[in-house]
Amino acid sequence: MQSSPWWKEATIYQVYPRSFFDSNGDGEGDLPGITARLDYVQQLGVDAIWLSPFYTSPNKDGGYDVADPRGVDPRFGNLEDAKELITAAHQRSLRVIADIVPNHFSDQHHWFQAALKAPRGSKERARFHFYDANSDGTPPNNWISLFGGPSWTQVEDGQFYLHLFDSSQPDLNWENPEVSEDFEKTLRFWIDLGIDGFRIDVAHGLVKEDILKNHPDPQGLSDALRLDLAMDTEKRNALLLTVPYFDRQGVHEIYREWRKIFDSYIGRDIMAVAEAWVHPPVNATRYVRADELHQVFNFDLLTAEFTAKVLYDVIDRSIALNATVNALPTWALSNHDSPRVVSRIGQEQAGALALFVFGLPGSTYVFAGQELGLPDGELSDSDRQDPSFFRTKGVIKGRDGARVPLPWSGDATPFGFTTGKPWLPISQSWSQFTVKSELKNPKSSLHLYQNALKLRKEFMNGSGEITWVESPEHASKGQALLAYHRGSVTVFMNLTDITQECKVDGKLLIVSSGTVDAHNEMKVIPARSCAWFIA
Ligand code: NOJ
């Protein structure tokens, strides 16, 4: 069953273009490479692809440093290739979502180049956040970049500009109408080319408040914004309430205007999903009010421990919060910014969690390679390219491990990804994870994903709410098992390292790993596994 509109309960496959498939042997994936592998994507059973940026860019931050938002970077091909990709995807009933990066441009964008040449106070500088130094020569405030180091860089005439990320990513000034006009043009440009939706980068960051004020604990705040640092939850939460540059009320006005643009394309069902890391979690629902965006990412599962208590809390909360604004949640276990789920919680656990999540209401995002059960790539420091590695002088290793190219075929690295030298090395130990070898292995992660996505379409999409059967709050085994009913299906997940018996009247549809033993109503769920039963 297909939910209506299409994005409501879609499975959306995130493609990181540089790492997907290289069509021309230069060691980097490209748009024709994606087009060439669309049959694979279609056979996986997803509904849409989300393309991480492929725009003209010096590529200091994996393309999230955009020098021309309406142009294709030559490393990925050209505009014709983008059109062909969209057409080929549509022919296979796959929608295409593009990334839009409105918080900042690359310093190579012609606006910023003009701003550098223009005097202080000029209209060219007013498109960014340029300010004079303090009287003692220090930057206008003490904010720290999310990639480490100060969030201000000084230019020749002594002024500073703001960059929440790398110094090559100057933040745009959204109080300047020229900025919103330019983004409206960009949205229309891609929609006119056939794009079906947008993933909005740093959607919560566009509006800054108190820009000339120091934050009382900039280092604490910067640490709190990093998920990889252990920090006392109360301290983190208290600090997150004080961010002067995220989740300000003004961002919602911007998305209300964008929504009008999307809706003006009658019959196209253009959607947008916000990358909004906000606190407290209830704030995320503001982005999906009826006149704003369609979805907001829920990032909880990127960091959640594989325990019944934690998973129950985040899943139940996300469903409940979204329901308050009549929206459905989103689920993601991996993306290009975080460690791959297999490396974080384990191979079997990752398969179990994926199967558990595929049954839930809402949309699911799958990061390319997740379906193969890929772990993070092993890299040496000389391979790394993430700006956060350089800006922290190697203290933070960065996100390259999750971005290692996909292994497609053959017995030797680079496993068919390229005929050249891959931009990040692919370990020889990945021979078991190639698409080709997994297609041959009925017990592979790829088969699990293909089968699960078929069943999701058949039994789960559009089947309404879930009812918890086992949870820390609902039943006797709720520390060991999580289970819910949805439609005619019951989904059980065993979180422990030993088998667990459960009572369920129904026939096994799928199990993520191991074998389910059945004695009439009593079923034995393997350790670290998830199973679906149909009544
Ligand atoms: C979020 C993107 O997902 C990430 O990859 C990027 O570095 C930052 N936004 C800055 O654009």
Quickly list its features.
single chain, 535 residues, alpha/beta, TIM Barrel, Immunoglobulin-like, 2 domains, eight-stranded parallel sheet, five-stranded antiparallel sheet, 14 helices, 21 strands, 26% helix, 16% strand, binds 1-deoxynojirimycin, GH, GH13_cat_dom
Strand content: 15-25%
Could you tell me the radius of gyration in angstroms? 23 Å
The largest sheet is:
8 strands, parallel
CATH architecture of the largest domain: Alpha-Beta Barrel
Shape summary: globular
* Low-confidence region ranges: none
SS-based structural class?
alpha/beta
CATH topology of the largest domain: TIM Barrel
The tally of strands reads 21
Give the CATH superfamily of the largest domain. Answer: Glycosidases
Mean of residue pLDDT values:
96
Report the top-level CATH class of the largest domain: Alpha Beta
Q: Please estimate the helix content.
A: 25-40%
What's the arrangement of strands in the largest beta sheet? 11-10-9-5-2-1-13-12
Count of separate DSSP helical elements: 14
Bound small molecules, deduplicated: 1-deoxynojirimycin
Head-to-tail CA distance between termini:
18 Å
GO molecular function, one term: alpha-amylase activity
GO biological process, one term: oligosaccharide catabolic process
InterPro entries: GH, GH13_cat_dom, O16G_dom_2
